[in-house]
Amino acid sequence: MLTIDTEISGSSSRWQELGRRVLTGDALTIEEAREILQSPDEQLLDLLAATYAVRRAHFGHIVHLYYLKNAKSGLCPEDCGYCSQSVVSDAPIERYSIANERVLMEGAKSARDSQARTYCIVASGRGPSNREVEHVCNVVKKIKQEYGLHICACLGLLKPEQAQKLADAGVDRINHNLNTSRRYYQEICTTHTYQDRLDTLKVAHEAGMELCSGLIVGMGEEQQDILDAVFELRGLDVKSIPVNFLQAIDGTPLAQKDELDPRYCLKVLCVLRMAHPSVEIRIAGGREVNLRSMQAMGLYAANSMFVSDYLTTKGQSAEEDFAMVKDLGFEIVIGGHEGADDSAGLA
Ligand code: SF4
C-alpha cells in the first residue's frame, strides 16, 4: 500500500513539475511528449490536472465553439484515405458544388445561434477555382457586416493571389491541416504532398491571415508520426490546432480502422496543450465516437470544440454540448479572447 501511494504521489509531482516548467516558458521536448503519450493510465488524472493548470493559465474557463459549413461536398479528385468526399470513396454522401450566398448566410446565422465564435467555410477539392474564391470573398464581406463572426476558410491548396484576395475580403484564418507526419503523409494521400500543404500554409501566412492546422489521429500512424506533426506545427506560427480522431467512414480506404482508446485520445490532447501552451487546441472530428464518455475531460486540455455536425458526419446536439460545458463549470465565449495570451493567471 505504501509503495502504491509513493508511486501515485511521484507521478503527480512529476506532471505538476512539467506543467510548472511549461508555464514558465520551457519548451516541451519531444522525449517529454513521448513520455506523456506512453504514460500509464493510472497517471491520467495527474497528467490531466497538470495540463489543466496550463490550459487555465492561458484560457481560463473559456470555451470557443466553431461551426462548420460544408460549402462544397464530394466531387474531389484527391485520394485522401480518411475522406468521404474523395474520388476513391464510395461513402453515400451528398455531393454538390459551391453553395450559393443564401445557403452560406443561413450557415452563418446557424453559427451565431449556436454560440459559435468562428464560422468555418469548408469546400472539398484540391483547391478552389478563382471563381469560387471570388464567391467566398463576396459572401464573407456580407457575413462580416451582418454577423461579425470570425471567419475561417478551408478551401484546399491556395495560390498566393487567391490567399491575398481572401485576406483582403476579411477572411481571418485559413485552415489547412498537416494531418500527420511528413513520413506518413504518402500513406494517406498520393495526389498531393505534405510539402504542398506546408506551401499553402506559407502563402496564407504571407497574405496576413492566421493559420489553423492540425492532425488526424488514428490513421494507422506510429506515435512518432503524431509527435513529428505536433513539433512541426511549432515552427508555423499557428493560432489554432484542431485535433481530429479518425471516425472511420464506410466506403473510405480507412473504413476498417478501429476506434481509439479514449484515454489515449486524452493523452494526445495533453501533449498538444503542453507543446503549444498558448495556442488554441480544438477537439475536432471523431470526438463523440473516440472519446465517448470521456469527452468532457478533453476540455481540461483543449479550450475549443466544434458544435453541431461535421462535414459529412453527425455530431452530438448543440444542447448536449452546451450542457457539457456548463457541467464543467466552463463558459462559452463568442468574441474577444484570441488565444496566444501570455498573461498567465486568467482564471
Ligand atoms: S483534398 Fe480535401 S476534400 Fe479532397 S479528398 Fe482530400 S480531404 Fe477530402
TrEMBL record:
Similarity annotation: Belongs to the radical SAM superfamily. Biotin synthase family.
Annotated keywords: 2Fe-2S, 4Fe-4S, Biotin biosynthesis, Iron, Iron-sulfur, Metal-binding, S-adenosyl-L-methionine, Transferase
Domain of life: Bacteria
Transmembrane segments: none
GO biological process: biotin biosynthetic process
Subunit structure: Homodimer.
HAMAP family given in the database record: BioB (MF_01694)
Binding site for [4Fe-4S] cluster: 76, 80, 83
Keyword Transferase: yes
Catalytic activity: (4R,5S)-dethiobiotin + (sulfur carrier)-SH + 2 reduced [2Fe-2S]-[ferredoxin] + 2 S-adenosyl-L-methionine = (sulfur carrier)-H + biotin + 2 5'-deoxyadenosine + 2 L-methionine + 2 oxidized [2Fe-2S]-[ferredoxin]
Protein name: Biotin synthase
UniProt entry tagged with the keyword Transmembrane: no
Cofactor note as given: Binds 1 [2Fe-2S] cluster. The cluster is coordinated with 3 cysteines and 1 arginine. Binds 1 [4Fe-4S] cluster. The cluster is coordinated with 3 cysteines and an exchangeable S-adenosyl-L-methionine.
Sequence ranges assigned to domain Radical SAM core in this UniProt record: 58-287
Binding-site list for [2Fe-2S] cluster: 120, 152, 212, 282
Residue ranges of coiled coil: none
Signal peptide bounds: none
Enzyme Commission number(s): 2.8.1.6
